Amino acid sequence: MERRAWKRQAWLLWALALTFAVPLQALAADPLPSWNDGPVKQSIVDFVTRATTEGGPGYIPPEERIATFDNDGTLWQEQPVVQGAFLLEQVKARVKEDASLAKRQPFKAVLEGDVALLRSMDESQLMELATATHGGRTQEEFAREARAFFQSARHPKLGVPYTRLAYAPMLELLQYLRANGFQTWISSGGGMDFMRVVSEDTYGIPPQQVIGSSLKEKFDEGNGHPVLRREARLDHLNDKAGKPVGIEQHIGRRPVFAAGNVRSGGDIQMLQYTKEQPRPGFALLIDHDDAEREFAYQEKNGASLKAAREGGWTVVSMRQDWKRVFPEGR
To answer: Distance (Å, rounded) from C-alpha 164 to C-alpha 173?
Structure first.
């Protein structure tokens, strides 16, 4: 009996020692199950672990844990750009009201179905469409039109609502960061008011934590019913060098984590702003190289990947680093 008791005690001690030899992270449920194991996933986990280990060299106080994310091509698909699809519908409606728009670009391209031109439109061209289609509208009118679009519109190739095309790995990353005390913000070149309509339901990011391009607004007493009315003038273009400006204006702190993608070079300055500071931040760049499950495309001059190599950013290969792309396993 004593011998059996000794063996049982020895086995328990061995099991206890083995348990403490295994990192606690390995014992916990995987917070990023849609990410393949490898250096990219590990670098994210390592950064978050350092940032939340009090007393460690990489510790970041909770109030400074700011994470900013581009939207199109970073949090959800951008072929086509979702706001572009929305604005195409709006342009057709506005041309019926003002026929002169049909002779101007990019409105002419919209009516003629010039898909190549539409796909190449940058944020400034999208905002030009926004000023022409929504100048004079109240914020409430714009929000109603945007909500109606999201309720009815479907992706032309994948055939599902755009809000179901958020990337599963990025949704997990947002949740993982928030679970570790990070504030998650959107900083996109797209229209701020457009994204705010769906940001909370789609990403868990409340509208007050969305930064984007915006039109000028004015207060209108509205015959005793005060409203904010959108003007046909651009207030802020939140793209390229405009992103750090928008972040400072809305947050007042430099991000310690930022994510963008390779499409147009529009995220380079935000990632540089995050990475290069007294406390080095984490810069994540999404490379669209998965033609089978999503789309494969690069910016023409390769500026984003070049900046990533020079700046030591973490580059995500959608094809290699993601087990799945969309929540429903596409």
So the answer is: 17
Q: Alpha-carbon distance 76 to 201, whole Å?
A: 13
Q: Do 265 and 288 touch, CB atoms closer than 8 A?
A: no
- Mark 145-157 as b/e (b = at least 16 C-beta within 10 Å): bbeebbeeeebee
Q: Which two tokens stand for residue 62?
A: 């909770």
CA distance 176 to 191: 26
Distance CA 91, CA 107 (A): 7
CB 69 within 8 A of CB 187: yes
Q: DSSP per residue over 67-89, as a string? A: EEE--BTTTB--SS-HHHHHHHH
Q: Which CATH superfamily is domain 24-79+165-214+236-321 in?
A: HAD superfamily/HAD-like (3.40.50.1000)
CA distance 105 to 133: 13
Q: Token pair of 86, please? A: 């929305």
Q: Beta strands of 144-200 (E only): which ranges?
A: 183-191
- Tell me which DSSP letter residue 322 carries: B
Distance CA 1, CA 270 (A): 68
Contact between 70 and 78 under an 8 Å Cβ cutoff? The reply is: no
280 half-sphere exposure, CB direction, 13 A CA radius: 11
**Cis? peptide before 80, omega within 30° of 0:** yes
List, for residues 281-292, the tens digit of each pLDDT value: 999 999 999 999
Burial (CB count within 10 angstroms: exposed 0-12, middle 13-18, buried 19+), residue 122: middle
Structure-token pair, residue 10: 């020895």
pLDDT in tens, 29-58: 899 999 999 999 999 999 999 999 999 999
The whole-angstrom separation of Cα 324 and Cα 322 is 5
Q: Count the neighbouring beta carbons within 10 Å of the beta carbon of residue 72.
A: 24
Residue spans of the chain under pLDDT 70: 1-28, 106, 113-121, 329-330
Q: Rounded to an integer, what distance in angstroms lies between the CA atom of residue 128 and that of residue 225?
A: 29
